[in-house]
Amino acid sequence: MSTPLLWRVLTTIDRGFVGLSGRLQVTGDIPADLKGRPLLLASNHIGNLDPFVLIAACRELGVHPRFLLAGGLLDAPVMGPALRASGHLRVDRASTSVGEAYHRTVEALRRGGDPIAVYPEGKISLDPGLWPERGKTGAARLALSGRVPVIPVSQWGAHEAVYWGNTHVNGWADFKPYLVSYVRGLRRRPTFKVHFGAPVDLSDLRDGRPGDARRAHERIMRAITAGLVPLRADEPDLPKFHDPTRPTTGSSPWRPEAA
């Protein structure tokens, strides 16, 4: 499956946007023999800007990831058709069509082409230390179902560019924290660190065998956390950057002292 031209254009624009917003620093790589083959990129989720940073980092490595996106984004005016034409995949967590979407994603993975990027946590971490939250086994089940390699991706720094903000944006008052924090971030130019780790070894696990999806998920999350530790070596406990809008109601079982 070739990368749609529209998505190539949009990733080029994204790279310029990320370059304007901060300094991109990419470490690690995707093995050459995995490029162009079925592949999952499993990343931690630290802020509203980190999908853009992930796209830019992947472009540095010569790949253009597709995302699993909520149906609301794919149905939005203007943006929705562009995202659909770019090859992104629909997932509606609250819908009765979740099973159908799951199988559609497995088939898309098996066809190869660009990797599919997933956030096992399902949301931006609300752990006080911004370590990955527990997450769910969806990505692990996709990997086991399709026998698809998983590359753990660890991110740090994107949380400094834009505030967590609000759950819903209904007017200027809700949008203001995003704009104000982004303008302030332009002056600081934070460093966006992205590390691509070695493929997670899931060779001894099987789809449908009791407990294996949970075991695969744990290995993926621990690999993401292991890659995150050196990225934030000078911030081992709490982030130095304080976001007053982000709740700290979450809890991470993966942080090094808890793992």
Give a written overview of the molecule.
By secondary structure, the chain is α/β, with parallel strands linked by helices. It contains eight helices and seven strands; from the N terminus they run αββαβααβαβαβαβα. The chain has helices at residues 5-21, 50-60, 71-74, 79-85, 98-110, 138-146, 172-188, 212-231, and strands at residues 23-28, 40-43, 66-70, 89-91, 116-118, 150-156, 191-196. It has a seven-stranded mixed beta sheet with strand order 1-7-6-2-5-3-4, with helices on both faces. Helix 6 (138-146) crosses helix 8 (212-231).
Sum this structure up briefly.
The chain is α/β, with parallel strands linked by helices and about 260 residues long. Helices cover about 40% and strands about 15% of the residues.
Mean pLDDT, all residues: 90
Question: What spatial form do the alpha-carbon principal axes imply?
Answer: globular
Order of helices and strands: HEEHEHHEHEHEHEH
**N-C termini distance:** 39 Å
InterPro entries: Plipid/glycerol_acylTrfase
Biased composition (Basic and acidic residues): 234-245
Protein name: Lysophospholipid acyltransferase family protein
Domain Phospholipid/glycerol acyltransferase: 39-158
